[in-house]
Amino acid sequence: MMRSLLFVPGDSERKMEKASDCGADALILDLEDSVAPSRKAEARQIVASFLATARRDAHAPLLIVRVNALDTGLTNDDLAAIVGAAPDAILLPKANSGADIQDLDVRISVEEAEAGLPAGQVLIHALITETAAGLLAAASFAAKSKRLSAVAWGAEDLAADIGASSNRNDQGVYTDVFRLARSLTILAAANSGVDAIDTVFTDFRDMEGLDAECRAAVRDGFSGKMAIHPGQVSVINAAFTPPPEDVERAVRILALFAAAGPDAGVLSLDGRMIDKPHLKQAERVARRAGLDPASLPDLS
Ligand code: COA
Ligand code: MG
User: Fold this and answer.
1) How many other C-beta atoms lie within 10 A of the C-beta of residue 225?
2) CB–CB of 222/264 below 8 Å?
């Protein structure tokens, strides 16, 4: 379950400590844009030792490391420093196409092998809309690497890439290119069978604005949202936790389909038609609620 993913600058031990118990489902330890070029080497060491000593149990946050983009010449040094310390995932910024995911997969495989980690253990998350190329190649991210488990979108770097002076209009609404980026992320995630993660909300004192953006993200199919400040985490977690009545209904739908057997077509619940799309939705809600699959009705 990854509702909230909190960015933490990779050169700040203090922030890493503070982030650890703020309730985030995942931390994104950043080696990229929040770390100055002169501090990259130090950040790698800080992140590696944090990974080596952090609590790693079911209740601790997942630990993701954002490396520098493939065209920076820094990625291999990032991977060499951190893959051996077994992060849960690597977040690739400025991914331009599925070929970049294949490329990163191979580089991770080398480091995993050198460190003696099980092959394929370290997953990949990708920011797929930070360049015009990535956005235009949204369909290409599918089926390139078994490691790919989430795609996310970013609005700041895309603005720089296309030469937009702002990503929102005077009313604070994302302009067309950014709305397209958001939509393509949802589609690329579904097309690739991975989670869709919503972009950061940069105005970190505006909790009402954050809540509204979270509600829209849940409605539209995102399964989580990135954060930049610990104060944003509880708002995100609350919004992405399905309400008990939705969970109860989902479990009832799963039970109905289980009882009807593998050839179930259309069913009814409380006077409403229930079919395959409802089953898919119910499975999604159960997953988002963090229900143990073993505790659910057997659908096979
Ligand atoms: N992770 C962990 N702790 C954080 C944090 C974060 N992302 N952001 C803030 N904190 C801590 C601060 O260190 C501060 O603790 P302290 O007073 O004990 O040092 C406390 O939370 C309150 O912070 P606040 O004063 O409200 O904000 P700030 O001005 O110190 O920091 C930012 C503002 C934006 C610089 C900071 O939130 C940050 O670094 N965010 C992450 C940026 C990032 O990684 N960007 C890359 C992806 S877009
Ligand atoms: Mg960036």
Assistant:
1) 28
2) no
Tell me which amino acid residue 271 is: G
Roughly what angle, to the nearest 10 degrees, separates helices 276-288 and 244-260? 130
Closest CA to 28 of 52, 47, 55, 54: 47
Q: Which of 10, 29, 5, 78 is nearest to 224 (CA)?
A: 5
Tokens read off for 290: 């963090």
- How do beta strands 123-127 and 4-9 pair? unpaired
Lowest mean pLDDT among 39-43, 148-152, 228-232, 275-279: 275-279
Q: What is the pLDDT of residues 196-212, one digit of tens each?
A: 999 999 999 999 999 99
Q: How far apart are CA 94 and CA 105, in angstroms?
A: 15
DSSP character at residue 51:
H
Residue 292 pLDDT > 90: no
Q: Which of 18, 22, 67, 129, when mutated, tests ligand 1's pocket best, judged by the most ligand atoms within 8 Å of its CB? A: 18
Which residues' Cβ are closer than 6 Å to ligand 1?
Answer: 6-9, 14-15, 18-19, 30, 33-34, 200, 228-230
pLDDT of 65 above 70: yes
Question: Which segments of 98-175 does DSSP mark as H helices, in order?
Answer: 98-115, 132-136, 156-162
**Top-level CATH class of 4-240?**
alpha beta
Measured in degrees and rounded to the nearest 5, phi and psi for residue 167 equal: -100, 0
**Mean confidence (pLDDT) of the chain:** 96
Q: Are 23 and 241 in contact (CB under 8 A)?
A: no
Cα torsion 77, 30, 124, 21: sign: positive
The closest-lying atom of ligand 1 relative to the alpha carbon of residue 9 is: 44
Evaluate if residue 300 carries a pLDDT over 70.
no
Strand pairing report for 272-274 and 267-269: antiparallel
Q: Where are the domains of the chain?
A: 4-240, 244-299
Distance 30 CA to ligand 2 centre (A): 10
